[in-house]
Write a structure and sequence with these properties.
CATH architecture: Alpha-Beta Barrel
CATH class: Alpha Beta
Shape: globular
Number of helices: 10
CATH superfamily: Metal-dependent hydrolases
Helix content: 40-55%
Largest sheet: 5 strands, parallel
Strand content: 5-15%
Number of domains: 1
């Protein structure tokens, strides 16, 4: 399985506090079948060339320590960017996109963001010719009132992710209901852990996969933890974007 959203890097945000916790988290991830971990610390207004070097340094420290400990996971680096940061300016930094490949980037929004603002932000991000991945879409209650809303977001070019913890009840019954609803609408592209520690909010991707499989079937759930995040990891085109380009060509 691939996990493309977590806070396993120590001392950079509200995730792991030190290297020991990072290694415990990665060990737990490997035990549940996660083979690829995309490390995504929070980005903020302080992100620049100088902090880019800091984040890269911490990432390499964790990567080398995991290798020494024999933890069988591959690591990549990206950021979780918040709406409000000058995203289009930040995207030129190597750590803004997975593997520094300039293909996919992770973005989150304030919980109560109005739907039209979220949708317009995605359309603006698409001008970068990079694909925005929306973190924990189930949290944005103004953007999940009816199925047309997430469908419009996906049609605009974004990839929608859901936190596994939301689906398995870590954040209350209301969040679980919204998560199940998104799955039933067919609007989830990727399931991710958003792990922050090695206790209550750790890697729970296996549990999330099993919960999703009970709702949409094992084959579809497998796409959420393997097939689709693999595209992000490898920087290959997103199928929906390619289909829309073909449709645009046919109609012009």
């Amino acid at each position: 399985m691939f996990d493309i959203h977590n806070h396993v890097l120590p001392g950079l945000d509200d995730g792991a506090t030190d290297l020991s916790e990072s290694l415990r988290m990665l060990t737990a991830a490997a035990r549940q079948g996660i083979t690829h971990v995309g490390c995504t610390p929070h980005g903020n207004d302080r992100i620049n060339e100088k902090t880019d070097l800091l984040y890269q340094s911490v990432f390499l420290q964790v990567k080398e320590a995991a290798k020494r400990e024999g933890i069988p996971v591959e690591l990549a680096l990206a950021l979780e960017l918040m709406l409000g940061v000058d995203i289009l300016q930040t995207l030129h930094l190597p750590l803004a996109t997975y593997h520094g490949a300039g293909k996919y980037f992770l973005i989150e929004f304030p919980w109560h963001t109005p739907f039209e603002i979220l949708l317009n932000a995605i359309r603006a991000c698409m001008q970068s010719e990079m694909i925005p991945i929306i973190a924990h879409y189930e949290r944005y209650e103004q953007a999940i009132k009816k199925p047309e809303q997430p469908h419009k977001v996906r049609h605009a070019g974004a990839v929608i992710t859901m936190d596994a913890g939301s689906l398995v009840g870590q954040f209350g019954a209301a969040m679980t209901r919204r998560s199940r609803q998104l799955l039933n609408w067919g609007c989830v592209d990727v399931l991710a852990s958003d792990a922050h520690d090695d206790m209550e909010h750790g890697f729970c991707l296996r549990q999330g996969f099993e919960a999703a499989a009970a709702i949409i079937g094992e084959a579809e759930a497998q796409k959420l933890v393997s097939d689709n995040p693999r595209r992000i990891w490898e920087g290959t085109p997103w199928p929906r974007a390619e289909e829309e380009k073909e449709e645009e060509t046919r109609t012009t």
